[in-house]
Amino acid sequence: MIELEHKSPAAAHWSTQQYGGMFANRDSERPERFILVVEEADEVRMETTSGASHRLLAFLVAHRIDNEWELENIVVAAESRRRGVGTRLLREFLDQARAKNGNTIFLEVRQSNHAARALYRKFGFVETGARKGYYPTPPEDAILYRLTFY
Ligand SMILES: CC(C)(COP(=O)(O)OP(=O)(O)OC[C@H]1O[C@@H](n2cnc3c(N)ncnc32)[C@H](O)[C@@H]1OP(=O)(O)O)[C@@H](O)C(=O)NCCC(=O)NCCS
To answer: How many angstroms is it from 8 CA to the middle of ligand 1?
Structure first.
């Protein structure tokens, strides 16, 4: 996941410790999380090693705050984009959030991230505001989006 994130400048960036924390056992201090991944069977490596190995194509991370979910990150490997992988991940996340009585999904995204913004719009997310200079390196405003189920 870290490797994929590093190759995607537009993605949200976290430290190795933050990634580790996501997989730590849940306790009352930690929010409930979804970590969804898409893997691809790697035929070449399967021939040269004894066990099956899979390449990570994409992931999505979200956490719960009461009946709302924050979509924290969604990343698809550059060579796998525009093939519906992001759509699959987002659809699965929305289905699961709804099944857990979630009523709202919210997120923020770099203003210049037209691909992600188009994806969110396609799913019915609406723009709810902006945060000036929210992102560092490079500095940029964040656009806020929200999707309400009912
Ligand atoms: C945003 C991202 C996850 C989309 O994943 P994807 O697998 O390419 O998306 P899909 O193929 O499912 O595309 C779904 C829709 O998103 C929109 N979209 C995706 N890429 C787009 C692009 N480059 N330009 C314009 N619209 C785009 C389109 O509406 C598309 O529907 P269409 O193909 O019918 O036109 C991917 O571009 C990515 O990983 N970007 C880098 C990381 C990132 O920016 N994450 C968001 C952090 S908030």
So the answer is: 12
Phi, psi of 87 (to 5 degrees): -60, -45
Handedness of CA 122, 125, 148, 27 (dihedral sign): positive
Residues in contact with ligand 1 (CB, 6 Å cut-off): 8, 10-12, 73-76, 81-87, 109, 113-116, 118-119, 122
| pLDDT tens digits along 54-99 | 789 999 999 999 999 999 999 999 999 999 999 999 999 999 999 9
Is-above-0.90 flag for pTM?
A: yes
Instruction: Report d(CA 19, CA 117) in Å as an integer.
Output: 24
C-alpha span between 109 and 113 (Å, rounded)? 7
- Fold topology of 2-148: Aminopeptidase (3.40.630)
Backbone dihedral angles phi then psi of residue 90, each to the nearest 5 degrees = -65, -40
Q: In whole angstroms, what is the distance from residue 53 CA to residue 50 CA?
A: 9
| Rounded distance from Cα 102 to ligand 1 centre (Å) | 24
Closest Cα partner for 101 from 3, 28, 32, 27?
Answer: 32
DSSP conformation class of 77:
-
